[in-house]
Amino acid sequence: MAADYDTIAQQYKKSKELPFRLHIETYTYLNLLGDVTGKSILDLACGEGFYSRELKRKGATRVVGVEISEKMIELATQEEAREPLGVEYILSDVLELGKIGSFDLVVASYLLNYCQTPEQALKICQNIFANLKPGGRFVTINNNSEQPPASYLLTKKYGFIKSIDRPLQEGTPIQYTISVDTDKFSFYNYYLSKSTYEWALQSAGFKEVRWQKPLVSPQGVEEFGQEFWQVFLEYAPIIFIECS
Ligand SMILES: C[S@@+](CC[C@H](N)C(=O)[O-])C[C@H]1O[C@@H](n2cnc3c(N)ncnc32)[C@H](O)[C@@H]1O
User: Fold this and answer.
1) Could you tell me the domains of the chain?
2) How much distance in Å is there from the Cα of 107 to the middle of ligand 1?
3) Which of 31, 67, 134, 146 sits at a 20 to 30 Å CA gap from 209?
4) For the segment 64-94, what is each residue's pLDDT rounded down to a tens digit?
5) Separation of 44 CA from ligand 1 center, angstroms?
6) β-pairing verdict for 209-212 and 238-243
7) Is 100 within 8 Å of 106 (Cβ atoms)?
């Protein structure tokens, strides 16, 4: 799986300040996660630890972050040194992770969209399932495969666009370009269809797979107005999945 975040780690961290991150991404994700007090959580593709820290602050007893990029883990470790929360970080490819424990929750914000083939998705889902306690849940944020490409440029007002250079089919690269202030950077995700994700999750053992569209926080509506978020809600560039 190709995901070289070493060169864009700092820029990616900064992009967490964009309004849609707080008012849609974080809001919907934390809503789905519910009360994490007393829970053990495995945060896959944890990046620089944005959600790992958030979940620990919200009362999780143990949070383990797994990440493939050394630079991202370095930023996460720096934050841990600055504000010690007790988050543990492991440098590893989730494809190669295997079982490292038995967690109440496995979370991943933007991991499955790095799978380039159905087989990779299956392997990752098996590794997710293996690290859950019986009855545990997997909650994730993902590129929304169902967003019509004709709407890819409409999200510019939120600070990002997507582009493709060939029709969408299993493995098609989708370039994300994010702008924060005057800075711009890009990275690739890969398209897999919704039915492929469902197949991978169910084949790995998940009984229920629920899809959740983005929601806007009341604070986001108050600050920016409902109208501002309309394009995001209508075309849903990202999607949330809850599996049990
Ligand atoms: C879009 S970033 C999201 C980071 C973090 N979850 C967040 O929301 O701030 C995606 C992250 O997934 C990591 N990643 C991609 N494929 C991975 C893999 N196979 N194993 C571990 N990490 C992976 C990348 O290095 C990158 O840090």
Assistant:
1) 2-144+191-243 (3.40.50.150)
2) 12
3) 67
4) 999 999 999 999 999 999 999 999 999 999 9
5) 7
6) antiparallel
7) no
